[in-house]
Write a structure and sequence with these properties.
The chain has 184 residues and is α+β, with helices and mostly antiparallel strands. Helices cover 38% and strands 26% of the residues. β6 and β7 form a beta hairpin.
Length: 184
């Protein structure tokens, strides 16, 4: 009977420590100051002070996968060199469908992170900043006429794309289309 009680107590203790570790790791995802982690650890009255300090110590040693990847997989750039991520050239294609139905393709080589950056750097688009990001008004020299309910529709590989150009991360080989569309 005594062994069974100790075994149950040991299991509950292990479960409680596991739960505490999960909570402390998840709490670290929210607030960059770490205050939510310490308040959750302190609010757990079932854990002794020794267990709390070991949980906080182990949490401070836990790093996010992104931090681990950046420190392990990516060498630090030497002075005067661009980092590997910045210098990675991506080949993308932009197809423009003008109001008269004519189509024009633009193969682009870029180190930009977003579609908006790449297209602005090439001088292919212009627009107005809004609370939603860049509102594209001009593509390849053709400006949409708001009075005629014209606007530039962004698609990716022929599929409707529900993101703005300046928030669209690009990858090598991507194909995007900007089509002058009439009617809202």
């Amino acid at each position: 009977m005594m062994k069974r009680t100790k075994r149950k107590t040991g299991r509950w203790g292990a479960l409680l420590l596991s739960l505490l570790l999960v909570v402390s790791v998840l709490a670290g995802c929210g607030d960059s100051t770490g205050s939510s982690t310490s308040s959750q650890v302190e609010s757990s009255s079932a854990v002794s002070q020794t267990e709390e300090s070991s949980a906080v110590d182990s949490q401070s040693q836990v790093s996010s996968p992104a931090e681990e990847e950046s420190s392990v997989l990516k060498p630090e750039p030497r002075e005067g060199e661009a980092s590997q991520e910045e210098s990675q050239v991506k080949e993308i294609t932009l197809k423009v469908v003008h109001g008269d139905g004519s189509e024009k393709e633009f193969p682009l080589s870029t180190t930009a992170e977003t579609l908006g950056e790449a297209l602005e750097a090439e001088g292919l688009i212009a627009g107005e900043e809004s609370s939603y990001g860049l509102f594209i008004t001009t593509v390849d020299g053709e400006t949409a006429d708001d009075a005629n309910q014209e606007w530039w529709c962004l698609t990716k590989g022929g599929e409707v794309w529900n993101y703005g150009a300046d928030s669209t991360q690009i990858s090598d080989g991507d194909t995007y289309e900007l089509t002058l569309t009439v009617g809202y």
